[in-house]
Amino acid sequence: MKRLFGxxxxxxxxxxxxxGGGRTVYIVATSGHPNYGDEIILRRWLRLLxxxxxxxxxxxxxPAPGPTAALMRDEHPGLRTTDTLYRLSxxxxxxxxREVAEFVRGALDDPGSAPRWIPGIEVLRGLGAGxxxxxxxxxxxxxxxxxxxxxVAGAAWVAERTRxxxxxxxxxxxxxxxxxxxxxxxxxxxxxxxxxRDQASLEVVRANPDAVVAPDDALxxxxxxLLARDAATAPDVMVCVQTDMLAVPFDDVVETVxxxxxxxxxxxxxxxxFVECIPRVDRAIYDALSxxxxxxRFYxxxxxxxxxxxxxxxxxxxxxxxHPHLVAAAAGASGxxxxxxxxxxxxKHGAVAALGSGWTQARVGDxxxxxxxxxxxPARAQDHGVRLLATARRIYAPHAR
Length: 401
Known about the structure:
single chain; about 400 residues; alpha/beta; Rossmann fold; 2 domains; seven-stranded parallel beta sheet; six-stranded parallel beta sheet; about 15% strand; disordered N terminus
């Protein structure tokens, strides 16, 4: 099989040849699902690279390379999309993260063991001095999706077996079972720049003594660029509540939102806007309450990606989603961060609180909820962005300015 791989490699030089005059940057992300937070994180990194390295070849490895290519088509002139590391992780014979990691490493060592993905594997094997592999931020590498630990194993393989630089930034790693922790123990020490977005995640990567807690990647460059220009005309009350990953019945979520809106004196749909982070998944709360609140405004994912999040001072938000909490609080809005699962979303909202948000942390079923203020996050958001730019310089130096 190795001999066959060599023949295929000779016949497909275009699959491995460096394009353009710049280096290769290989980004691992979870774009294309689509999901608001995942899309803005990738877009911010691509826009930075478009300014600093427009001649680079930028590969984005995501679980949905087609939608990613369409969504990000204008963000970098050297953009190419693939799903190689995801494919290898999905191809593994077990959901055990350790076995997934072993399979991915084995396929990178011997591409013939995963022959369907040889052209993509060869891109990774072809990374060299000056190139960068960067796993960007999000909450997608943990025990909720145990096969995603294969992404970490792939990054560590590149760090160990090639001359490329490897970075991991802004990940949320909880929940992390024993298998996930073992994969990180083996991988973390090989990664040159490693940041996570909460203190509990830092404990998972202690094998790398230089790992640190850092602001969420979405704040790269600050929060202002994520806000809608016409936010001043947005409703005074905003709701972003999901139907996925619930640890409680959705009817209980609806009742919590309903009672909170009533407690805030909301009597008219004109007072309320509903924000969607994942199409359909986040529309259900609007559908459940729209008959009671006729005229309520609905903001689709595509609208907020195009125009920005309609967040401003003076608003009150109810959000179960992490990134609307982060961005709206940075804009000066007050709100309630509604946790729908303790081992995943409570940690996420706690990370925003650590960045300065004063929003009330609540559980489904809580009553009499009062919106907490934005805290220090509006004043600190720009500093958070500056800190992330400093991390970018470490990753992409000397190109990031």
